[in-house]
Each structure stands twice: as structure tokens, then as C-alpha cells.
Write a structure and sequence with these properties.
Layout: H1 3-20, H2 25-33, E1 35-36, H3 39-66, E2 72-75, H4 77-94, H5 104-124, H6 138-160, E3 162-164, H7 179-206, E4 213-216, H8 217-240, H9 245-269, E5 283-284, E6 288-289, H10 293-310, E7 313-315, H11 316-323
Antiparallel strand pairs: 1-3, 2-4, 3-7, 5-6
Length: about 325
């Protein structure tokens, strides 16, 4: 996706650099190692982004219908896979916009939205293809059209501006993605974590083979802010203090439990707390439980992996502004 923009940017950058003098070997190697996001990374993000849209739309629908402050939304691992495939197909469709160079309005307002809406209708009927097809209302069509505009004008363009440098050590990056972007990423990843976790629990406890999972819009703020702070701890403790993984882990766990308890206490005052661990052993006020300790340990270790990957991603636009 970023090949055209990246190559043109490299040419422009090369001319500017040549006029100012020959770059050092280290900076030249770093520039050559920058490339568009690899396919596996895009597919990973596509599934997470699709789950986020599922949760957002279903929670808003529940809010308008039942006025429930818990803002509970739903998705599943199956839908995550479907979204990964459909997002990848939409990526290929978006790459064909060069065929509409003289007619960008036709592509962005007619062609792409038509394909997007068709895919969403197909997803909605994927479980009823052998039965009666589901009727799409005018409101749903309007929502799908607005989402199609978001994909064409914001989503694809934003991803095309990202570059990945797999050869650079994370600690060498003074600037990576902006903080707000990392916060959004961690919030979406929190949705994915909870949907996967609750779907597995529903399978074990209720034998739910549909693997339906749920989370809350409040979890976006909880996970986004918590992971953002934990990442700051990782950068400071690992790169500045030289702490190893098992030295950092207890601090991560203490902060996570404190964060979950604090959010739970606040949300409970407004009837907006979507979890209750009172029926689990070793719980405190029904808001935290040691039963989830292994899960938090795994997520804490995975958090460092995610941070290392994010620190190797750069925004082309922000790099140009910094150079200028």
C-alpha cells in the first residue's frame, strides 16, 4: 500500500540529502531498511480493527436500545478471521484507485463504497446463506456508507504512511509512532484480548461453540491507558535502568491490578462496571481476582513484544516534518 508513496518520498528525500552532502553510512543503511508494513503485521491489525468496529457498533446499538451505561459490545474469533480477510480484500481494492486517476470522486464515493457495502452484507448473511437472507435497513446502509468513507479517506491512507524498520534495535528510536496512535493501538488490542478471553471462557463454561465474546467500550480507555503506562515503564526500566524481564514483571502486575481495581471502583459508582468476579475464588470486592493472574502475566510479557514492534514503526509524514 505504501510502495508508491514511500518510493516517491525516498526520491524526494534523496535529492534533498544529495544537495546537502553525502549521508553517513549508518543513516543511509537506516533509510534503505525502511519499508512498508509487512503483510503479517497488516493482517494482524486488520483483525484487531475489525473486532473494534464490531464492539463499537454493537455497544452503541445496545446503548440506544437499552440505555445501558456498561456499553457492552460483542464479537468473536470467527469474525476476527472474517474481518482480516475482508480488510485484506479492501486493501487490494483500494490499490486499484490508480485506475480512477481522472475520476477520484467516482472511486471514493461510488466504487469503493459499493464494494465495501457488498462485503458487509455478505458478512451479515454468512450464517444464513442457506436460509432466508437478512434484509438490510436504510440505517444500516447509511452506516456502512459512512464506514466506507472512513476506510477510503482515513484508514487506508493512514496505514500507507507507516514504515517498518526490522533491522533497527528498539532502544535506538528516539521517535516512533505518536503517543495517541500507540494509545489507540493498545485500546484496540484490549478489545481483541477481552473478546478472545471471554470467548474461550464461554466455550469452557457454557460449551458455546459460536465462541461469542464480549467487552465494553470502557475497556478501550482502560487497556489503552494501562498499556501506555506499562510501555513507559518498559522503556525506562529496560533501557535506562537495565532491569530484566523478571524484575519488571512484578511491577507490571501490581500496576495492572491497581488500574483494574481503580477503574472498577469508579465505574461501579455509575452502574457502568461490566465485570463482577464475586463468584470466582480469591477475588477482592468482585473487581479483581488472582484467578486471572496467569493471563495477566502472559499479557505483560506480550506487552514488551508489542512495544518493541511499535518502536520500529515510523510515520512518513512525521519524519518529513522532523527533517524540515
Amino acid at each position: 500500500m505504501a510502495s508508491l508513496g514511500g518510493r516517491s518520498g525516498d526520491r524526494a528525500g534523496g535529492l534533498k540529502t544529495a544537495s546537502r552532502g553525502e549521508p553517513s553510512g549508518e543513516s543511509g543503511d537506516a533509510a534503505q531498511s525502511q519499508r512498508e508494513l509487512p503483510r503479517w503485521m497488516r493482517l494482524y491489525f486488520y483483525g484487531m480493527h475489525g473486532v473494534t468496529l464490531d464492539v463499537l457498533l454493537s455497544s452503541l446499538q445496545g446503548l440506544f436500545s437499552y440505555r445501558d451505561p456498561k456499553l457492552v459490545g460483542f464479537s468473536s474469533p470467527y469474525l476476527c478471521i472474517v474481518h482480516t480477510l475482508t480488510h485484506f480484500a479492501l486493501e487490494k481494492i483500494y490499490s486499484q484507485k490508480r485506475c480512477f486517476r481522472g475520476r477520484p470522486v467516482v472511486f471514493h464515493l461510488v466504487f469503493y463504497p459499493s464494494v465495501y457495502i457488498g462485503l458487509q452484507i455478505l458478512i451479515g448473511n454468512i450464517n444464513t446463506l442457506t436460509e432466508q437472507a437478512r434484509v438490510v435497513s436504510g440505517t444500516q446502509l447509511a452506516v456502512h456508507y459512512l464506514l466506507a468513507l472512513y476506510f477510503a479517506q482515513v484508514f487506508h491512507r493512514g496505514l500507507s504512511r507507516l514504515q517498518y524498520n526490522p533491522c533497527s534495535p528498539p532502544g535506538a528510536h528516539s521517535q516512533g509512532l505518536p503517543g495517541i496512535v500507540r494509545f489507540l493501538f493498545f485500546g484496540m488490542h484490549g478489545f481483541l484480548d477481552e473478546v478472545l478471553f471471554t470467548s474461550v471462557f464461554n466455550l469452557v463454561e457454557k460449551s458455546d461453540r459460536a465462541l461469542s465474546g464480549h467487552t465494553s467500550l470502557w475497556s478501550f480507555l482502560m487497556y489503552g491507558s494501562c498499556s501506555f503506562v506499562v510501555e513507559k515503564l518498559y522503556l525506562h526500566l529496560h533501557f535506562s535502568r537495565g532491569w530484566g524481564t523478571w524484575q519488571r514483571l512484578p511491577l507490571y502486575i501490581c500496576f495492572i491490578y491497581t488500574w483494574e481495581l481503580s477503574w472498577g471502583l469508579v465505574l461501579r459508582q455509575f452502574g457502568a462496571c461490566s465485570w463482577d468476579y464475586s463468584h470466582y475464588p480469591h477475588n477482592f470486592m468482585g473487581l479483581i481476582t488472582l484467578l486471572y493472574l496467569p493471563g495477566w502475566v502472559c499479557l505483560s510479557l506480550y506487552q514488551d513484544v508489542l512495544s518493541n514492534v511499535l518502536l520500529r514503526i515510523n510515520n512518513i509524514c512525521s519524519k518529513k516534518i522532523a527533517v524540515a
